[in-house]
Amino acid sequence: MASRLNPYLSFNGDARQALEFYKEVFGGNLTLSTFGEFGMPDAPEADKIMHGMLEADNDFTLMGADTPPGQEYNPGSAFAVSLSGDDSDELRGYWEKLSGGGTVQVPLEKQMWGDEFGMCTDRFGVPWMVNIAGDQAKV
């Protein structure tokens, strides 16, 4: 397997719902493993997600988990998951699903650099940026 870089998101008890939502957005195969399946069957968080991985048909990979017991959940604003490309219909579809029930910070519309761009935070608190490549001005 070649090296790859993919986001790993932390959640505060709703990783299952979030990863199932992302499966609805991107499609693909979702595998979920709980804390209970990995040696903590009697723990209060036994049904929470220890590791989840979504492998979409388009080669996107998104991982996530509930914050492990004993670790503090500190959602931050120093990251965003970025989707970009030139398939306008595909990216608009992702935008509509991700922004639905969430908050739009920047509407998906043409920007001064010639692309369409938008920023939203989905209903699970994850920030997303979507950029649809446009015709670049020739200088």
UniProtKB/TrEMBL annotation:
Protein name: PhnB protein
Top-level lineage group: Bacteria
InterPro entries: Glyas_Bleomycin-R_OHBP_Dase, Glyas_Fos-R_dOase_dom, PhnB-like
PANTHER family to which the protein is assigned, alphabetical: PROTEIN YJDN, PROTEIN YJDN-RELATED
Residue span, Glyoxalase/fosfomycin resistance/dioxygenase domain: 4-130
Organism per entry: Actinokineospora alba
